[in-house]
Write a structure and sequence with these properties.
Structural class: alpha+beta
Oligomer: single chain
Shape: globular
Number of helices: 7
Strand order of the largest sheet: 1-2-3-4-5-7-6
Number of strands: 7
Radius of gyration: 16 Å
Strand content: 15-25%
Length: about 210
């Protein structure tokens, strides 16, 4: 997967104190196939399993932006975050996030999610971003639910044999207005200032 120069330049700046985002590389595909298709079978974006040979094209289908999630100290991929299904007419898009079992429930991957939301709201004129993830991934941002993140409930049952519901697919959303109005909270999460255009900014002012 070869990133464009613009994607690479954007990725260089997607860094916080503990988390970072970098472009997806060819060397990541086997790991991401294992994570998204086999380990999270039927609960991530893919309702059915896919062979690794067709995974690369399927991974990027209908996707506007995607990055590997890493810690700020390592380039090792421990997850992926994507913006897909963008509807500019109605001002929304979907965010899919998958995390390695070793970091699910940890606090620092929420920095990666905040980095990506900042990137999305700065580069796409969206009013709302819906987040699709499993229940055990949602534990990463549990402290933000009801404050910064709105829950819309379960949209798909999880893997058979997982009776505790950890792999149920859940839907959340973050509004641009909330992101801007509660800027101070996200700045504390990221450990630096953010600059996200308000929702009222006219579309003609956006650089596409």
């Amino acid at each position: 997967v070869e990133p464009t120069s613009g994607e690479f330049e954007s990725a260089v700046g997607l860094r916080a104190s503990r988390a970072a985002l970098r472009p997806v590389e060819a060397a990541d595909l086997n790991y991401l196939h294992q994570l998204c298709v086999l380990e999270l079978a039927g609960t991530w974006r893919f309702a059915t399993t896919l062979p690794v040979e067709g995974f690369e094209s399927s991974l990027s289908r209908n996707v506007e932006a995607q990055f590997c999630i890493t810690s700020s100290r390592s380039q090792e991929c421990v997850g992926i975050v994507q913006l897909f299904g963008v509807n500019l007419l109605h001002g929304y898009g979907f965010l899919a996030v998958a995390l390695d079992p070793t970091v699910r429930g940890a606090a620092w991957p929420f920095q990666a999610l905040a980095l990506f939301l900042e990137h999305v709201f700065c580069h796409w004129p969206l009013r709302r971003v819906y987040i699709q993830c499993t229940a055990d991934v949602a534990a990463t941002f549990s402290s933000a639910q009801g404050k910064l993140v709105t829950s819309h409930g379960k949209i798909r049952d999880g893997i058979p044999g997982q009776p505790d519901g950890r792999r149920d697919m859940l839907l959340y959303s973050v509004e641009r207005r909330s992101f801007v109005e509660r800027r101070a909270v996200f700045e504390r999460v990221l450990g630096r200032p953010i600059d996200v255009p308000p929702e009222e900014k006219g579309r003609e002012a956006w650089v596409t």
